[in-house]
Amino acid sequence: MNTVSLEIATRNGCLFTGDITKVTCPTTSGYITVLPNHVALVSVLSSGIIVVVTSSGDTKEFPAKKGVIEIRPNHVAMMLHE
What pLDDT, in 10s, does the model give residues 6-55? Predict the structure, then answer.
């Protein structure tokens, strides 16, 4: 199974780190879903729910207000404003 590493952080610490199969998040252009080997991208996050599907198949949800996302083919990093 293809996976991508994900880090979701705030200025107070890490909310999630681990291997995932996909993540869906709100951006200023609408929701996007990131899969392994996604094209590189930097975007602004907007208010909504981040939905993570872990490599074990579990689904986790995190609230987002604003922030940024950096996507590389094998790594995704999100920094959320609280």
Answer: 999 999 999 999 999 999 999 999 999 999 999 999 999 999 999 999 99
SS in 3 state form for the chain? CCCEEEEEEECCEEEEEEEEEEEEEEECCEEEEECCCCCCEEEEECCEEEEEEECCCCEEEEEECEEEEEEECCEEEEEEEC
Domain coordinates in residue numbering, the chain: 4-81
User: What is the pLDDT, as a whole number, of residue 82?
Assistant: 76
CATH number of the structural domain 4-81: 2.60.15.10
For the segment 52-82, what is each residue's pLDDT rounded down to a tens digit? 999 999 999 999 999 999 999 899 999 999 7
- Plot region of 38 (φ>0 → left; ψ -120 to 50 → alpha; else → beta): beta
